[in-house]
Design a protein that fits this description.
The chain is of the alpha/beta class. It folds into two domains: 274 residues, Aldehyde Dehydrogenase, Chain A, domain 1, CATH 3.40.605; 188 residues, 3-Layer(aba) Sandwich (Aldehyde Dehydrogenase, Chain A, domain 2), CATH 3.40.309. Helix content is 38%, strand content 22%. The strands form six sheets. Strands 14-15-16-13-12-18-19 form a seven-stranded mixed β-sheet, sandwiched between helices. A six-stranded mixed β-sheet has the order 9-8-7-10-11-21, with helices on both faces. Strands 5-6-22 form a three-stranded antiparallel β-sheet, with no helix packed on it. It starts with 9 loop residues before the first strand and ends with a strand. The structure holds nicotinamide-adenine-dinucleotide.
């Protein structure tokens, strides 16, 4: 791939090529509803070639020096940063986030490669003796084998690097299926890794308009040994059943329904600042998005008013235009879902403080919206909104707030705003989640173990333990003479 060309072909065994069938599918710009590119549409036949290419080099790749794998990641990290503007423009065109946010994602996504370049050379083991003293136990760690990576559209670069980084560091080969809305960023990333020296076959990218057939082929085919999936809980559950047919290792980063608690003693300006990030990052299309705000009655009016004031001042528009704060939602279905959830909450008594009506014209735009007096029966209390809508419920008693916050099948992240240290720890401990933002509206960081409990997923990505998802333990029993 040259620097200026946008890659649109499949990347299998180190070669760029059209789909075997010659089919393509169209990537749409959600701000304009106009085509961005035609991308090769991978089929099951292409998927088969890809997994075979990954399997063919697994053994050799596993034996490469950790330092070699580390340096490929490090070079790719630098190349990604060098191409910040180019990658940001691709992301904005295919999924809508404003350019400033897209640049932020480039820095965030690249950091997974730097982080795992540092982890690649620190894969350790263990050495002990059995209790009776008769045997040595040596524990080594080996790459799990060819991996299936499946990512969503909301962070087209970072969701890829969060999986590819540890897989490369651990010595795994992989087939990668990006979301059909955002294949261009994934293909650009493959070009960068190729340039950074990744050997042919280690990474194979198969965009497709038929994810069901392609992914099923990999999960049930018996060659791949690991699934790392990020996406909705419904699709995740389906893939778990398919992965069960070959007893495959799985890491599942699924949906969320994050509670955002604002206590009576909270610093309200700080809480509003955090809410702006937790709610509006990526137009509200994040798994970590604050979905339900529980605010103490004594500060509810002030919080809602200040939040609405901040949100009203934002500019909604094409993410590629200067000055845009809020880009479009991903597609018409996403827009209609948000509009339906707001209408339902209003029908059940919620009050609109700002926003509340979809923007007319081309593009899938919904304005930042604040709702108060949202009742527990409103559908958005039990559904990922995936849009810029803050739904506020008032509480009097903290125990009730915690109970309501935990009254969901999801458990990815929770946010707590309080200035009291005992309350801060107590509430953080009581929330049934994998991550807590304590007076913080952003938890994602490559150095931290990202993931959820309950139906938000299995396993963790990032941090010191992120590489474990791609390693198996092997134990050697050696008698002592
Ligand atoms: P999605 O589940 O629709 O799609 C995710 C991926 O799965 C895409 O690549 C898609 O092509 C593929 N897919 C869809 N149907 C499939 C099938 N039948 N078989 C195999 N693959 C299939 O999710 P989305 O709309 O792309 O992303 C939004 C969801 O992702 C939200 O629920 C969000 O919370 C979640 N998400 C979670 C995290 C996390 O780390 N926990 C991060 C980002 C997004």
């Amino acid at each position: 791939m040259t620097e200026s060309r946008i890659a649109t072909e499949l990347y299998i065994d180190g070669k760029w090529a059209p789909a075997e069938s010659g089919a393509t599918f169209t990537v749409i710009n959600p701000a304009t509803e106009q085509p961005v590119a035609e991308v090769a549409d991978g089929s099951v036949a292409d998927a088969e070639r890809a997994i075979r290419a990954a399997a063919a080099v697994q053994r050799d790749w596993a034996r490469t020096a950790p330092r070699e794998r580390s340096e490929i990641l490090r070079r790719a990290y630098e190349l990604i940063l060098d191409r910040t503007d180019e990658l940001a423009a691709i992301m904005t065109a295919e999924m809508g986030k404003p350019l400033a946010e897209a640049r932020g994602e480039v820095a965030y996504g690249a950091e997974f490669f730097r982080w795992f370049s540092e982890e690649a050379v620190r894969i350790g083991g263990d050495h002990t003796t059995t209790g009776d003293g008769k045997n040595r136990i040596i524990v080594t760690r080996e790459p799990v084998g060819p991996c299936v990576l499946v990512t969503p559209w909301n962070f087209p670069l970072a969701m890829g690097t969060r999986k590819i980084g540890p897989a490369i560091a651990a010595g795994c080969t992989m087939v990668f299926k990006p979301a059909e809305q955002t294949p261009l960023t994934a293909l650009a990333l493959a070009g960068i890794l190729e340039e950074a020296g990744l050997p042919a076959g280690v990474l194979n990218v198969v965009p497709t308009s038929n994810p069901g057939a392609v992914v099923r082929h990999w999960l049930e085919g018996g060659i791949a040994r690991k699934l790392s999936f990020t996406g909705s809980t419904d699709v995740g559950k389906l893939l778990l059943t398919q992965a069960a047919t070959t007893v495959m290792r799985t890491s599942m980063e699924l949906g969320g329904n994050a509670p955002f608690l604002v206590c009576a003693d909270a610093d309200i300006d700080r809480a509003v600042e955090g809410a702006m990030i937790a709610k509006l990052r990526n137009m509200g299309e994040t798994c970590t998005a604050a979905n339900r705000f529980f605010v103490h009655r004594s500060v509810a009016e002030e919080f809602a008013t200040k939040l609405a004031d901040r949100m009203t001042s934002l500019t909604v528009g094409d993410g590629a235009a200067d000055g845009t704060d809020i880009g479009p939602l991903i597609d018409r279905a996403g827009l209609e879902k948000v509009a339906r959830l707001v209408a339902d909450a209003r029908d059940r008594g919620a009050r609109v403080v700002t926003g509340g009506t979809a923007v007319e014209g081309a593009g899938y735009f919904y304005p930042p919206t604040v709702l108060t007096d949202v009742g527990p029966d409103a559908e958005l209390m039990s559904t990922e909104i995936f849009g810029p809508v803050a739904a506020i419920t008032v509480f009097d008693d903290e125990e009730d707030a915690v109970q309501a916050a935990n009254d969901t099948e999801w458990g990815l992240v929770g946010y707590v705003y309080t200035q009291d240290v005992d309350r801060a720890f107590s509430l953080s401990e009581q929330l049934e989640v994998g991550m807590v933002g304590l007076n913080a509206g952003l938890v994602s960081n490559p150095a931290a173990p990202f993931g959820g409990v309950k139906q938000s997923g299995l396993g963790r990505e990032g941090g010191r333990i992120g590489i474990d998802e791609f390693l198996e333990y092997k134990y050697l029993a050696i008698p002592r003479s």
